[in-house]
Structure formats: C-alpha cells, structure tokens
Amino acid sequence: MREVRIESLEGLEITDGEIRLPVHSGDLKIVFPAEVWSTLLASLPTHDEPDPEELAELEDLKRHLMQHAAEHSFTTILEGVQCGGERGSERSDLEYDLVLRPASLYAVTTGYFFTPVVEPEVMARIGVSLEEDSFVEQAYVIGAVATEQALAAGDDNVKALSVRGRRCTTSRFEMAPELWQVLSERMSWKNVDTVVTEKR
To answer: Do 97 and 79 touch, CB atoms closer than 8 A?
Structure first.
C-alpha cells in the first residue's frame, strides 16, 4: 500500500460540495466530499479534551489541597458538600469535592469543584447555588482544561482555574491563599495567566 503524508494544507480548495487538497506539487489531488470532510472534522479530538498528564495534575492538586489543609489545622475540611445546600424540596445535584476554611481570623470558606473540563454551564450553576449558600462564601471550578466561555464566566465569587496554560480568572495575589500556596510550593507553578473578565 502506498502512503502519502500531508505536510501542509497549502493550496486547499473548497468547491461546491468538495474539498480538494493538492499533493506532490500538484501532481495528485485528494478529493473529500463535504460529508466525509465534516465527519473527519467531527471525529477529531477538540482542544478542550484533557490529556492524561493534565488529568493527573488535576488529581495531584486535589490531593495536595487536602494534605495542606490537614497539615495547617484548617477549621473546616469537608468532602462531598452539596452546592447551595437545601433549596426547598429541591436539592442541587452538584457537590464540592472539597470545602476548606483556614483557622485564621478573617478566613473565607471556599468550595473547590474539580472537573476534567470547566464548562460555562457548570460555572453558572455553581454561581446560582453560591447565591443561596450560607456556608460556602466563594468557589473555584478547577479543571484540567477550561473553555474560553467558562473563563469568561468567572466573577468575584466563582473563579475558574485551568491546569492547561496555568490560567485563572483571578491573579495569584487575589487567589485563596491555600490554593496559591499549594500551586507554588507543592506543584512548582511560577505564576498564573490571569484571564481578565467583565465583572458582573
């Protein structure tokens, strides 16, 4: 079987219902019907899908946060806390993986929600649940990756953090102290790329 490797899309032509790609200086053209091209594109993994290393780093972050809280005698260290608590007879189906509160005087209770991909829908749902929550004061939705829409959905109370690109909707100076300590000291992050969003 003869194999032809495509090194460039230079010369790509899109015509009525077909995509033509010249190969070998134009000696040969590969022709894709539009339906086949669409199927090919749909089957490719998107940039939002995390790779195994990013997922492993996400798991490490969760483990290190728990260890940090235990070692520093946090007032609150809880797992599996329902987002928003009770809402009449309706219960949220989202749970924070961790809820932490340091022992310091002006500490804030923070909910940490870990997910492979941070999506805007989850940001919105946690934002709504946080408005009705009398226990958790701020939340971080942390993913191996985060969509641009999710990063744009961050606000003062609900923040998104992505392992890929080391991106966050808040700077390291405004981040929950325990989170930045773990990222910098245990995971060797030098900084975060702060995504500027319009505050609501």
So the answer is: yes
